[in-house]
Predict the 3D structure of the following.
Amino acid sequence: MAKSIYITSTEGRSGKSTVVLGVLDAIAQVTPRVGVFRAIARSTSERDYVLEMLLDHVGVDLDYDECIGVTYDDVRRDADAALSTVVERFKAVEAKCDAVVIVGSDFTDVGSIAELGYNARIAANLGTPMLVVLNGRASEGDRLGMSVARTAAQLAQVTEHAVNEIHHQRAELLAVVANRADPDALADINAAIHAVVTELPAVDGNRETEVGVWSIPEDVFLVAPSVRDVMGSVGGTLLRGDEALLTREVLDVVVAGMSLNNILPRLHEGAIVVVPADRTEVLLGLLLANSSGTFPSISAIVLNGPFPLPDAVQQLMAGLDSSLPIIQTDLDTYDTAVRVMGTHGRFAAGSQRRFDTAAALFGQNVDTAELTRDLGLARSAVVTPLMFGFQLFERARTARSNSWNPNLSGVTTAERARPRSRV
């Protein structure tokens, strides 16, 4: 049976992908055939970008479709049937691997179930220990994916609620990682969380390892949206500039609703500047400032409003030969600014800088040797009815038994043993 770990968060925007990538790389250091499984995906009509990204990093040849458990719609339709499907599909992936990293839901759907509790229920039925990712940032005051840091006491409270729900579902907690944490309070955060989990009993009454507790500091380059993300948010098109620069991170927003001499002092490194499309003198001034080397380098310009650029201005811009992306949108200034500031960054295939940053942060702040060592010892001793059913099914399938029963003519023992959710 392959080793496995179930990674989920307590809420959205936790940066769980950073932790998943770190765990995947850590396990890959000691295990040759590492697979990944997405327990709950958003839908089947739209490909899951998190799973696509992770499949590029696994050591087993796995198809996208076989690595999906169920969707939110499946869970809403019949939670018990969805659970059985998740277990069955996971077992197929597990059979091909030495270790499997299971990724929980993203808390992007408002459904009728308690999402963390359902993730814990899945983990319990898979017999898989859980790693829970806490969001070190408050959900309110979000701007370009960035918000105020939570205190150690606040994160301890979140941990307590999560631990109680996990224990209620009889899942085993392996570790807690506070991601996007305040860089100046990592020790305090670890101590506060550790105080909550240190007395946590094992589900089977026999805990062989302590619950691991680590904190990873916030890094703006991991949460900031890219220029491409912003372009999608405003429904824009690339008017001019180098398409390769659409991967740049957007670290600030400047709304150019004033004269050029008042805009220039407000420029910051990595900022995106929103300019009304009829303010061509501001547009040209920004292009000159960006190429001068004496002002901060901005990430892009967003021209808003249904005003085409005059031919003379386009001719002048061609002569400047600037590679700075210029995005055109028909939205007004207010709507453009709101959409830009509400854009969130995300991992995607090809985001090498984000991969490197995430790997470095994880390696610097998480004891990967301890994590992988504990994972080898943390196999759950609890056997739920659904797990027991699948164990019977696997034994029957392995034995290739096909004993005859007049009431079940033509049905194999393996098929009769196939479980249905009872947890």
Notes: The two ends are 22 Å apart (CA to CA).
